[in-house]
Structure formats: structure tokens, C-alpha cells
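User: Study the fold:
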Amino acid sequence: MTSKERVMAAVRRAEPDRVPLDLLPNRWVAERLHHDLGTRTHRELLQRLCCDVVDLRGVVDPVYRGPVPLVRERADGVRENIWGWRQKVVQTATGPEEQFVEFALAEATSLEDFERHPWPSPDWFDFSDIAARLEPWRDFAVMASGPSVFQHPTYLRRSDNLLMDMAVEPELAHWLMDKFTDFYLAFYDRMLSAAKGRIDILRTADDLGMQHGLFISPEMFRTFVKPRVKKLVDMAHSHGVSFLFHSCGAIRPLIDELIEIGVDILDPLQAAAEGMEPQALKDDYGDRVCLHGGICTQYLLPGGTAQEVRAETRRRIEIFGRGGGYILAPCHVLQNDVPTVNILAMVEAVS
């Protein structure tokens, strides 16, 4: 099987020749892996790690033709993108990480304040040659990533403010979340149309869970998140593209409703979160949705031995992979605290 065939068999909840693998290191880990493994290109790295999925971010992007810089440098190392959200690289105990700072709409109090913000347009992007640039990746499962209806608004509004809006000023929350939803619907509709069948999966990320429970109530999910995610699901399906929904945390109370609106792939099966036990997830949902993730990035990958990583990866394959419908992946982007030896141990257990 090719990587694409392997992944799409799993999405159909069939059993491929082996469990497919999806890895996404952060940029510092990617640099380290290139050094440690002697690879030079992104394709070489994916092939060395037996990855079956290519995430298009930073690999094949539409051409930007907007009237303002795609990213601009501000003072003190802060970088601002076209949405106006601002990030800065900070040093943590395990190495550099990007964090969000200076939330542009944190002090807004009205719809007029929101409307005055400089909003980007999908018209600023040129998708005309994307099909040709995707052609070299045809042997991989190709995943477009990026839309978000809940999490991205927090990068402008700040999480606490958006949650307060949802509780006491819902018209503000609806306006802001619609702004992002409408942009992403148009942006990815154009991308999928221009790709002419060369994109297999659309991935959205909206973290709705914490370690021991939901970040928002099921009622808030149904009011603010579910209908907007459904619009993205329906748009992806109209192009014959499968839909992956990412949410960290203990989201078990929402899984049935995510499946109900058409989510094809559920990620990341956060191994250490409450209620996300592998056998129970497989028993309850494995015949209705493709499961993606499951390899712990909180404890196992950063702190386990290579032997422990191999053993636990094989156990996940035995549970989630039985009968098909599983794409193995870490529960988060690979961060600086995950040693190369443990990444290779996980890969060896798959290949």
C-alpha cells in the first residue's frame, strides 16, 4: 500500500497493511531530527520516520498577495500575523516555545470595537497553482490544516474574555466566532476546489477539554461550536474530503455529537486525560469514527525509556488498530522535551 492508500483505508475503518503513522514535530524538534537523522528535506524526514501524512502548513501554502505583510515584526521579538494575533518565542524549562501575547481585542467592549479591527480576506490568497504543487505529494495522505471556530478567536480576544462573552454577552461571541468561521469556510472551499482532488483530509483544531473535564459545557458546545464545525464538515464533504477534528483533553461527553455532525477522524485521544482510556474508546466509538493519536506526550514520550515507548506503542496498536480504523500519532505536536531516541522507538514499533 502507498501511504495515501494506507491512511484512507484507516479512515474508512478498514484494516490496512500496517497502522498508518502521523507525526508533526515543532520547528525546533524538526531541526534536531534533521541533524540527528541526516535528512535535508521535509520529504526525506517524513520518509525516514515512516510518516504517511503530510500536513500542508509551511509545505504547500497558497500564494499570499494581500495588501499588508503576511507576518510583521513588532518590538521585543513579537510577531504579528494578518489576523492581528501576536506571538513571541520564549524560553521554557525544555527549550524555546511560541506563546501568544498582547491580545488585540482583549479590551474591546462592543461590536463596533470588533468591526474596527483590520480583518483579513480570503481574496488575499492565490490558489491557482496549488494543484500542480500538490502533485509531488500524491503518494502521501495530504492534509490541509488550519480552521478553528473557538480557539483562534481566543488569540485575539483572550480565553477568559471570550468565555465571559459566551456567558453574558453572546452576541459578541457569535459575531467574533462567525468572523473566523466565515473566513475559513471561504478559504478552504477555494483551496479544496483548486486542489482538484489532491487533498484528502481537512483538519480543524478547537481544544474543548482539560485534563479532568470539558473546558466549556455541553450546552455551550451546542450553541457556539457544534453548528460552526458542522458547516466546515459539510463543506469538506462536498469536496469528497474527510474531516479530522482535533481537541485535546477529556472530551468524551462530546464524542457522540462530533460523530453526529460527520467528523470522520477524532484526534488526539489524549492518553492521560480522564475518560480517554484506549479500550473504552475503541469499544464505544471504533466502529463509527477513525481514531487518531493515543501516544502520550505528557509522560511517556518525554519521560519514558525507549523500551517503554515501544511497548506502549505496540499496546496502542493492539487496542486501537484491531480491525482497522486507527492512525497512530502522538497526543500533541512533538515538543522539545521528547528525545530523538523515543521518537525513533515509536516509529520502530509501527514499522
Notes: The radius of gyration is 20 Å. The chain has a mean pLDDT of 97.
